[in-house]
């Protein structure tokens, strides 16, 4: 044990909903622990979501330990501010041992086989040692911008999607949104509805119907067991797990995001952005194929629901298929920002992992944790809140409770106790 260090059996790094859910279970089991958070609890919901953000999953998906959604609209979609209020209500139900505004800058194996964590805060550096660590910092904390972003005209304002809040923050003129995953598609819609001239670089993200045959598609998929299927058994295997999430929106009660309709209304669509210099950008000729693939996934999911309805003998409205409302005449491959009056770019091309502060052989070549249900082969090193950690529901509100309980059980049993299962057996 390091001199002048503080010992605690378990340290949870990250005070978002996943880390705090593990804390909820450990607290009820009487396991001494601490949660270290670099900011304030669940701050990302208020600080890194745009003003018109809504959940894309129905409210009934929102389940945290001891706190399922109990509001008046289970099939609706909470706004950003409603999510923040709901989370505040949950936090008021318990008192986690939380250290805020404290950053873990280093995690390494201790001399006695446990772990040593170096902390930084306003009061200076500090060392914690522990037997078990739970990493709950999120799957991909670092926003991605392409390497050529610095070569573009400095007069063009560039923001990442986590920095976008509303159309008014951007200068007058056209806006290029790069990326058509959930954030990119919804931000493009937000700008489009505000009357901005929007250009959208479309990637490989698939899409899904919001409602189909009388119900929300995600409710159908839940009934079909898709959110509960273990990752190793999921159709399509690893390739399916690596795909970007389907774009759809919960805005205004929920609706499809149809990029073709946006184009018919004046939005300019392009394929994948390849590179750029000054004001000139180059795109791959992938737009037509990307739109066709997204629609094929949309119709395929609807067909899966059709088979489920038929198999279960469910009385539901008749089936349908999406038919394109717009087709590109060509696949554009170039764009001059100045000529088109584009004054800002919103990068919505995702995030990447950053576990450089963890000194342990628990990561693959891409820097992602090698884990099974959050448990690594490094004894005592665990993760929670990762996409696909156990199921498609992992990393979402729907799967957090189950994943957190499993990690809390694992940690407790590793410490030599069984009190967690006894205390919260349901």
UniProtKB/TrEMBL annotation:
The keyword Secreted does not apply. The keyword Oxidoreductase applies. NCBIfam families: MSMEG_0569_nitr. This is MSMEG_0569 family flavin-dependent oxidoreductase. It comes from Tsukamurella soli. Keywords: Oxidoreductase.
């Amino acid at each position: 044990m390091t001199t002048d260090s503080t010992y605690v059996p378990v340290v949870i790094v990250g005070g978002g909903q996943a880390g705090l859910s593990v804390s909820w279970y450990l607290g009820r089991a009487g396991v001494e622990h601490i949660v270290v958070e670099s900011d304030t609890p669940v701050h990302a919901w208020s600080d890194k979501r745009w003003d018109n953000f809504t959940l894309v999953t129905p409210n009934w998906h929102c389940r945290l330990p001891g706190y399922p959604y109990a509001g008046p609209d289970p099939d609706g979609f909470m706004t950003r501010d409603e999510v923040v209020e709901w989370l505040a209500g949950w936090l008021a139900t318990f008192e986690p041992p939380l250290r805020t505004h404290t950053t873990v800058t280093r995690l390494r194996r201790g001399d006695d086989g446990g772990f040593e964590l170096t902390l930084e805060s306003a009061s200076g550096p500090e060392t914690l040692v522990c037997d078990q660590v739970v990493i709950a910092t999120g799957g991909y904390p670092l926003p991605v911008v392409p390497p050529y972003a610095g070569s573009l005209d400095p007069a063009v304002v560039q923001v990442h999607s986590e920095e976008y809040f509303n159309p008014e923050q951007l200068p007058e003129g056209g806006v290029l949104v790069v990326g058509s995953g959930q954030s990119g598609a919804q931000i493009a819609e937000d700008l489009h509805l505000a009357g901005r001239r929007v250009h959208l670089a479309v990637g490989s993200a698939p899409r899904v119907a919001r409602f189909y045959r009388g119900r929300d598609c995600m409710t159908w998929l839940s009934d079909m067991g898709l959110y509960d299927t273990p990752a190793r058994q999921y159709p399509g295997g690893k390739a399916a797990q690596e795909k970007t999430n389907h774009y759809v929106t919960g805005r205004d009660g929920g609706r499809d995001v149809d990029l073709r309709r946006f184009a018919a209304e004046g939005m300019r669509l392009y394929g994948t952005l390849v590179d750029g210099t000054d004001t000139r950008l180059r795109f791959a000729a992938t737009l037509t194929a990307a739109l066709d693939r997204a629609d094929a996934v949309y119709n395929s999911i609807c067909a899966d629901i059709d088979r489920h309805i038929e198999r279960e003998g469910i009385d539901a409205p008749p089936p349908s298929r999406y038919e394109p409302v717009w087709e590109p005449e060509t696949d554009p491959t170039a764009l001059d920002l100045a000529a088109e009056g584009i004054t800002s770019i919103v990068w919505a091309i995702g995030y990447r992992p950053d576990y450089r502060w963890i000194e342990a052989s628990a990561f693959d070549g891409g820097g992602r944790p090698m884990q099974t249900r959050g448990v690594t082969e490094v004894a005592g090193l665990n993760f929670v809140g990762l996409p696909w950690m156990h199921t498609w529901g992992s990393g979402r509100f729907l799967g957090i409770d189950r994943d957190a309980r499993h990690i809390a059980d694992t940690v407790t049993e590793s410490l030599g106790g069984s009190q967690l299962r006894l205390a919260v057996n349901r």
